[in-house]
Write a structure and sequence with these properties.
53% of the residues lie in helices and 7% in strands. With 297 residues, the protein is mainly α.
């Protein structure tokens, strides 16, 4: 089989100049950038095919070879730019394939990565927020800001519990949708409860009522639960640290927090959430948090 020729240096220079803008667009609007990338790939591929076809035919003797190459190269570029992105073309096929592997959460729709429910002793925020599990290069600036702002509180909780700060920070990110779905009081003010802790047992502090989803006998149902309300994020992380440190329920989890997966699995087994997919969601979010931290160094 004859190998396809290399793309012309002219085409590569054009695409290199547009790469930065495409990368920026991907960070702001991944679905729109996906279409742009599909059209760009289609144009490059068509140029390769046309060049291969031209090289398979003899060149005219009316011009020297370099003149023919220049002329045909310009013509090919114009034609592929004109054809690129047409309905039913290669770009549509590429876009459909890419979309199958791109998680998307439309505005106002429940985030599939947020936990679905809690048992007594822990809680869940309202079901709103941004998608979790996006690669660092495409992370929303709010995710980066969340990590920067909450790291100091997670580190304080680590000193109290021995659980790595990144695990606690990842759990806060999951529970609150990176801060976008954090629990609020009835008047709309912050309850600072990023970790979704319910107002159960001997809790004597402030509370707020939240509509959440609980799994009972494998069935999801909406219910209104009381959650703890705090005066600051520092107070919230400190209370969470005391809860998991002093509770026999989470003792094994705290002692066995070696990896993101073991911590997440332990939390689910201990009953922190009734969501059957909680362990997978938590470990994935912790790993995302770690990736963001590495990218920020």
């Amino acid at each position: 089989m004859t190998a396809l020729p290399q793309v012309s240096s002219n085409a590569l220079s054009i695409d290199s100049r547009s790469l930065d803008s495409l990368r920026h667009a991907a960070a702001q609007d991944p679905k729109s950038a996906m279409r742009q990338a599909a059209v760009q790939f289609e144009s490059i591929f068509m140029q390769m095919v046309m060049k291969s076809m031209r090289e398979a035919t003899s060149k005219s003797g009316l011009m020297d070879s370099s003149s023919v190459d220049t002329f045909t190269g310009m013509l090919d570029t114009q034609m592929t730019q004109k054809w690129g992105g047409r309905a039913g073309g290669l770009a549509d096929m590429i876009e459909r394939q890419l979309s199958r592997n791109m998680p998307a959460t439309p505005s106002g729709v429940s985030n599939p990565d947020l936990p679905s429910g809690r048992e007594r002793g822990a809680g869940a925020p309202s079901m709103t927020g941004r998608p979790v599990g996006i690669a660092p290069g495409g992370a929303n600036p709010e995710q980066v800001a969340f990590v920067q702002k909450m790291s100091v509180h997670a580190q304080a909780a680590e000193r109290e519990t021995g659980v790595p700060a990144s695990f606690i920070l990842g759990q806060a990110a999951l529970e609150s949708g990176w801060g976008r779905g954090e629990i609020r009081n009835g008047d709309g003010s912050r309850a600072f409860n990023l970790l979704g802790v319910k107002a159960t047992g001997n809790w004597k502090g402030a509370t707020t009522d939240v509509v959440t989803t609980e799994y009972v006998d494998g069935k999801a149902m909406k219910t209104v639960e009381k959650f703890r309300a705090y005066g600051s994020y520092q107070e919230a992380f400190s209370d969470y640290a005391r809860m998991i440190s002093n509770s026999t329920r989470y003792g094994d989890v705290v002692r066995g927090a070696r990896t993101a997966e073991s911590f997440a699995t332990g939390m689910q087994k201990a009953g922190y959430a009734t969501d059957p997919a909680y362990a997978n969601k938590l470990s994935r979010t912790i790993n995302q948090t770690l990736a963001l931290q590495r990218a920020m160094v």
